[in-house]
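agent> fetching stored inputs for the magnesium ion docking request
agent> found them:
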Amino acid sequence: IERTLSIIKPDATKRNLTGKINAKFEEAGLRIVAQKRIQLTMDQAGKFYEVHKERPFYGELCEFMASEPVVVQVLEGEGAIAKNREVMGATNPAEADEGTIRKEYALSVGENSVHGSDAPETAAEEISFFFSGLEIV
Ligand code: ATP
Ligand code: MG
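agent> prediction call returned; pasting tokens
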């Protein structure tokens, strides 16, 4: 059984969308096996998104992620990484399919409500960035 790291981003926590987004995950058969609300420092946001540090939107992305609390969570299920990305929809909400989280809730390509790991290696790294083994049940 696979696990992936999900983040409910500041634009969504601010609009009280945590429950609605979690309902989408659960309806898709993803189990929330760990979850906490935290506020990232600029340093932590920068480290988490280090792979994007050469991209023009890196600074803006880090400031956004540190601007308000986020909900970080571990989702578990068969093919959880791909399934989560399917439920999230395309990065740009204008290109996201009907019924996806980003189609329904995202504000823009930057403020797009959710993050999800993109591969098994990044999922493992991102889960251990936020959670110890004892916190995942
Ligand atoms: P995530 O990694 O958050 O799950 P993703 O894999 O769909 O999203 P990436 O290409 O990894 O998208 O980009 C990481 C994040 O950077 C995006 O979710 C978005 O918040 C932000 N981002 C991506 N492209 C842009 C852009 N052109 N302008 C502003 N922000 C962007
Ligand atoms: Mg990504």
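agent> quick read of the result: The pocket of magnesium ion (ligand 2) is lined by residues 118 (CB under 6 Å).
agent> awaiting further instructions
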